[in-house]
Amino acid sequence: MKVCTDACLFGAWVSEKITDSSIEQIIDIGAGTGLLSLMLAQNSLVSITAIEIQPLAAMQCNQNFAASSFHEQLHVACCDVLDYHPTGLADLIICNPPFFSGDLTSPNEASNIAKHDAGLSLAALAASCNRLSNDGGLVALLLPCLRANEMKLLMRDNHFYTVSEAIVKHTELHKPFRAMIIFDRKLPETVTKETIVIKDELQQYSPRFEALLHHYYLHL
């Protein structure tokens, strides 16, 4: 559950897209060690609650929050999101969910919960987003492309509609492997779409990738 490129890209992309000053409460479901929460906190003064079911990951998440300059706006809840009942509803939910289904699992149970949907199915995640979001709430998800349409249908069943989507490719020669999607309670007139390529033919980061990540990667 360490830092990976697609999660960094997702956090930066959501930070760019979410500029609404009315967003005051954010929930990060399955926060791991807190990467997404920290990236969002870097660009806003909102209150963020990171929900993490694994005690060791939650402990490290808490340590990372305490070591950051954004610690006053960051909070950790070590629990199953299905058992989480906040006093107020979220303006934005962000999640890089466990999404492998029917794949070989690991002997490491913590890894299975983090990566496989036996711990939290996409259907349960969609229902949790519905329960934890307010009437104007947004949801941002990072998914494998193969499961993006499935999740769109589940989110529609829970009264959320796609408003923005980015398909991610390693290079122009590779097939898309991730979908970054933002959902809204309101049915949009148009959906913003783009394709983001991480590296060019020389294995250098693309201009779009650099534009998104230069606030977070020290070497860009």
What does this structure look like?
This protein has seven helices and eight strands, in the order αβαβαββααβαβββα. With 220 residues, it is α/β, with parallel strands linked by helices. It has a single domain (5-213), classed as Vaccinia Virus protein VP39 (Rossmann fold, 3-Layer(aba) Sandwich), CATH 3.40.50. The chain has an eight-stranded mixed sheet with strand order 3-2-1-4-5-7-6-8. α3 links the parallel β2 (47-51) and β3 (74-77). α1 (5-17) runs parallel beside α2 (35-42) and α5 (122-132) crosses α6 (145-157). It is globular and about 50 Å long. The two termini are 24 Å apart.
Task: Give a short overview.
By secondary structure, the protein is α/β, with parallel strands linked by helices. Helix content is 33%, strand content 25%. Strands 3-2-1-4-5-7-6-8 form an eight-stranded mixed sheet.
Quickly count the helices: 7
Mean pLDDT: 91
Q: Can you tell me the overall shape?
A: globular
Tell me the distance between the termini: 24 Å
Strand residue content: 15-25%
CATH architecture: 3-Layer(aba) Sandwich
Helix-strand pattern: HEHEHEEHHEHEEEH
Count of discrete domains = 1
Q: Going by CATH, what is the homologous superfamily?
A: Vaccinia Virus protein VP39
β-strand number = 8
Fill in the CATH topology.
Rossmann fold
Strand order of the largest sheet: 3-2-1-4-5-7-6-8
